[in-house]
Every structure is written in structure tokens, then in C-alpha cells.
Amino acid sequence: MRALQDSSSLSAGGPLNTPHFLTIKGVEVNAGQTASFHCTVNGRKRDNFRLWLQGIGGREAPMKATKPWNNRRFIGTFDVENTTKGDSGRYRCIVHSDKGVGVSNYGELTIKQPPVPIAPPQLTAVGATYLWIQLNANSINGDGPIIDREVEYRTVSGTMYDLQPVDKTTHKIGHLDPDTEYEISVLLTRPLEGGTGAPGPPLRARTRCAARLLGMNGPTCAGPFRAGASAGVLPLGHPAGRSLGDGCAPAPEVCLRKRLLILFRLSRWSFPVTGAGPRQSS
């Protein structure tokens, strides 16, 4: 039986009349991918040759293809498809002919599990249009090494989605909408095809409201800023923000998506593109 575990042959006519193998190499793939073994056979391929791949756990794979290497050798290719951790182990090539049986050495099949973070990212800072996060991805389920990191985020309500590569343990997600809730996850990648794991547990975070503006319904208040108030806003920093006087009450806080800044009488002005108004409670 020892001869069957090495690159050898077994026949009544002796090894010179029976095809035998060169040493096969081990294979490493990520779970779900196809593992390909290449077995080089000494001898010319005959129609009566039958080749297959045999795992020590009992799994077998038929030959996928053959190609000539030279006039004395050919290569057989065997695929173990849809691999799982349970397919890990030792495999060997076997050839059967009317002259006898040839058996290769064992090659190791190693199945790696793509990495997935155990914990969600951590929120470190919040603005109206950005969120700072700490990836928090040192603890994983699966196998390393980690060669790439990505941050996936989407709006909780809506269809907005994006995926950003990152090269640090902290990351700023910018150009977000104010007062909007986002769901953020981290994806990790290990070497070889199919090495990206599923998104880790999500973090839910909401951006802040945009800068506060004081809105007015029109030029109804007397005072030195009446001409500017015709635009429906007050200059930033105007004392009317505390008390408009003359029967005018401060406007409610509003959350705005955009602001337009203009220069008027050497002052900085700000007003909403779609108009300012009270925020409706849900």
C-alpha cells in the first residue's frame, strides 16, 4: 500500500509499461471557489486510460481536460467545484489502463474562509454632511491576512448606496445629506479570487441638521435691514436672531439640504434654495 501513496504504478508488466505521475502540488482557494489540480503523467495518452482525482475523505472529481506536455508526457486537469471547509484535505491522481494502475503522491487542498468583521464600526464624529468612523475590524470570523478594506454605506430610507476603499483604521464618509440616517458596514478581503467576505454588522448613524437659519415670511419688520429682508432672510449674526422686535418672532429651526451664499451690502447672507419653514414632526 505504500507504493499507492507515492508517485508510482502497479501492474503485472512493471512500471515501465504503466503510466505514472510526476509530483503534484497542493492547492489553496477561498471557500466557494473551484480548486484545480494539475497532474502530469509520464507516458503517451491512450484511449483506454481513465484518470480521476481522489480525496482522502472520499470525494472524487472526474478529469476536466488533458493537454500534451511533450511526446512523452501529458497533463490532466481536475476541478473540485463549490469548495467548502469540509473539502480540505489530501488528494491524489489515479490513472487506470489495461497495463495497470498509476497513483500520484498526495497534494494538500486548503480551503480558506473569507474574513468578516465580528463587530460593527464605531462612530467617532458627526457633521451635517459627514460621518467619521473607526473600522473596528481587528476581530474577524474567517481567515487572513487582510489585504483590502472597504466601507459600504446606504441610506436607511431610500436607494442611495456607495462602496469606498480605505487604507486606514479610521475613515471619513463625506458628501452626505443632512439629517439622514445611514447604515455603514465594513468589508474585508484576503488573497486569491473570491477573498472578499460578507459585510460585517452594520452601524446606524444620522447626520446632523444643516446650519441654523432664521427665516422670515417677507419684509414685514421695520428696521435698518428691511431692504435685505426682502430676500426672506436675515444677515448671519443679526441681533434679530435673539429678538426681532416690533411683533416679529424668531423663526423655527429648519434643516436644509443646500444653502446659497451671496454678498449684499458687505454682509454674508444665507437662504435655503427651496425656502425655509418649520420642520414637520413625524
Automatic annotation (TrEMBL):
InterPro entries assigned: FN3_dom (IPR003961), FN3_sf (IPR036116), Ig-like_dom (IPR007110), Ig-like_dom_sf (IPR036179), Ig-like_fold (IPR013783), Ig_sub (IPR003599), Immunoglobulin_dom (IPR013151), R-tyr_protein_phosphatases (IPR051622)
CDD domains: FN3 (cd00063), Ig (cd00096)
UniProt KW keywords: Disulfide bond, Immunoglobulin domain, Repeat
Record Pfam families: ig
Domain Ig-like: 19-110
Domain Fibronectin type-III: start-end pairs: 117-210
Presence of the UniProt keyword Nuclease in the record: no
PANTHER family tied to this protein: PROTEIN TYROSINE PHOSPHATASE, RECEPTOR TYPE, M, SUSHI DOMAIN-CONTAINING PROTEIN 1
Protein name, entry field: Receptor-type tyrosine-protein phosphatase mu
Organism: Pleuronectes platessa
